[in-house]
Specification:
The structure is a single chain. The strands form 3 sheets. The chain has a two-stranded antiparallel ribbon. By secondary structure, it is α+β, with helices and mostly antiparallel strands. α1 packs parallel to α3 and α2 crosses α3. The chain is elongated, with a radius of gyration of 19 Å. It has 4 helices and 6 strands, in the order αααββββββα. A hairpin with a 6-residue loop joins β3 and β4. The structure holds zinc ion. The site of zinc ion has 8 residues, from loops.
């Protein structure tokens, strides 16, 4: 559930920011994500309030590494070592990590984060 940032205390905003940063780890490194958030704030970064950082964090997107920003995920395909010809053509489809956008936003991070946790829970 979304909480309006305008009604957040600074402490609540800091907690929310930490949550967003944690969840973003499913699709981006901390440095990449922080750079994207700072980019949203631009010149205001130095004087931004915690609530403004949260607003920027919710908007921040990073390039999807799964599909290298193309939005298309390829799999399969066997290449002959000798002449480089493709024996079995690779298959492709919309990248499931970014929903075919080529970049990931908070919805993607959250979905993938839940998925990764589910996989880990099943593996243990
Ligand atoms: Zn992708």
């Amino acid at each position: 559930m979304m909480t309006e940032t305008g009604t957040m205390t600074d402490d609540q905003a800091r907690d929310e920011f930490r949550k967003l940063r944690h969840i973003s780890g499913s699709g981006a490194t901390r440095a990449e994500w922080m750079k994207a958030v700072r980019g949203r704030l631009g010149d205001r970064a130095a004087s931004a309030t915690p609530a403004e950082w949260v607003a920027a964090a919710r908007m921040a997107t990073t390039k999807c590494e799964k599909c290298r920003g193309t939005g298309v995920y390829w799999w399969g395909g066997i290449v002959f070592e000798v002449d480089g010809s493709v024996k079995t053509p690779p298959k492709s489809g919309p990248c499931y990590q970014c929903d075919g956008k080529g970049y990931q936003d908070q919805d993607d991070y959250r979905r993938n984060y839940g998925y990764i946790r589910h996989m880990i829970a099943n593996a243990c």
